[in-house]
Amino acid sequence: MNQTLSKILRNKRFYPFWKKLNALSSYGMNFGVASGYADYSGELHIIKQLKKDLVNGVIFDIGANVGDWSKFVIEEYQDIPYQLYMFEPSLVTFEQLKNNTSQTKNIFLYPIGFGDKKEKLQIFYDNEAQGSASILMKNAKFSEEIQIETIDGFCKEHNIERIDFLKMDVQGYEYNILLGEKEMLKSEKIKYIQFEFDEPNIENRIFFKDFWELLHAEYDIYHSLYNGLVKIEKYHYELENFSCMNYLAIKKDL
């Protein structure tokens, strides 16, 4: 590009246009859209695509909230056998989850969260009706004490030998959960891992590179769009985008 054209493109007067175009491009790549109902964010596409591989599968919904994501699993998988474990650590939200979801022989509800070690922590939220809550949101108006377990410990205690689909939406604590399941990862007992990466990871000082280094040797990692997946071929700094995005890690031997 010659210098004259370069200066025209980088002229200050065009900055608002490039800013809007950049925001539009980000939206088109599903950044900032991933947090919401599964049929809007692209998570429903993943649920449908994995169905044939989850017959008799074990599914973990970590950060179940009031059950919006699991609702789509229950609807889509009603004609196949599976086990669905739903975890919501906030007792306020857990009561809503129980009201929205019937515990049956294949659906199990637990008022706990997960992390890298067993402990009690505070969870914070900005309104009593909950909505979005996080262990990392220290300046929020409301909080409550919650129980944190590790996935390795929970699976041992409940004789769960494998997790076929692990979904996490925990507002920046996803990496801590992965650190608490190193035995399951090492023994290759988790097939699919869906995790959210967004602004709360800044508070946790976690980069996408951390997820990449932990998972990429055994998993292929994909961006989730509303109607498909885009494989990430190699790590690069542009992946450090903290606008909300769902990623799917798939065991390489699948």
Question: Any key phrases for this structure?
Answer:
254 residues, alpha/beta, Rossmann fold, eight-stranded mixed beta sheet, 12 strands
Commentary on this structure:
A hairpin with a 2-residue loop joins strand 10 (219-225) and strand 11. This protein has one domain (31-251): Vaccinia Virus protein VP39 (Rossmann fold, 3-Layer(aba) Sandwich). It is built from 11 helices and 12 strands. The N and C termini lie far apart (44 Å). The chain has an 8-stranded mixed beta sheet with strand order 3-2-1-8-9-12-10-11, sandwiched between helices. The protein has 254 residues and is of the alpha/beta class. The longest helix has 14 residues, at 15-28.
Short recap of the structure:
It is built from 11 helices and 12 strands. The chain has helices at residues 3-9, 15-28, 38-41, 43-50, 68-76, 91-100, 151-157, 174-179, 182-186, 200-203, 208-215, and strands spanning 57-62, 82-87, 107-110, 113-114, 119-125, 133-134, 142-149, 163-168, 190-197, 219-225, 228-231, 245-251.
User: What overall geometry do the principal axes of the alpha carbons give?
Assistant: globular
Q: Output the CATH topology.
A: Rossmann fold
State the total count of DSSP E strands: 12
* Residue-averaged pLDDT: 92
Q: Strand pairing plus helix content: what structural class?
A: alpha/beta
Strand order of the largest sheet: 3-2-1-8-9-12-10-11
Number of contiguous helices: 11
The CATH top-level class label: Alpha Beta
- CATH superfamily, by name, is Vaccinia Virus protein VP39
Separation of the first and last Cα atoms: 44 Å
Portion in helices: 25-40%
SSE ordering: HHHHEHEHEEEEEHEHHEHHEEE
Biggest sheet statistics: 8 strands, mixed
Strand content: 25-35%
Q: Domains counted in the coordinates: how many?
A: 1
State the low-pLDDT regions, or none.
none
